[in-house]
Specification:
With 86 residues, the chain is of the alpha+beta class. It has 3 helices and 3 strands; from the N terminus they run αααβββ. The chain has a 3-stranded antiparallel beta sheet with strand order 1-2-3, with helices on one face. The longest helix has 12 residues. The radius of gyration is 13 Å and the shape is globular. The protein starts with a helix and ends with a strand. 14% of the residues are buried. The mean pLDDT is 94.
């Protein structure tokens, strides 16, 4: 999951559809629901039953980073918790 969420879509030479679009996460005036949607799209590349159950995003203007924390689960009740920065 961490690899997929840290890969910009189109960056992987052997699978250009792998990853997420960083533009939808790091662009100007990007709202949290767009970030959440992009992350869910990435998770569904691993298991299409993923659902995000808890989500938060905090922007730090000083460091110019976006800190994202979320919990997601699959239909067979596998749960993952991710804390990452962009």
């Amino acid at each position: 999951i961490q690899y997929l969420l840290s890969t910009n879509k189109g960056e992987c030479f052997y699978n250009e559809n792998e990853g997420i679009s960083f533009q939808n996460i790091l662009g100007k005036n990007v709202e949290d629901d767009i970030v959440k949607s992009e992350i869910l799209e990435g998770l569904m590349q691993i298991d299409n039953t993923f659902a995000i159950t808890d989500f938060s995003a905090e922007r730090n203007a000083e460091t110019r980073k976006l800190d994202v924390k979320f919990t997601a689960s699959t239909a067979d009740e596998k749960v993952v918790a991710v804390d990452t920065s962009y």
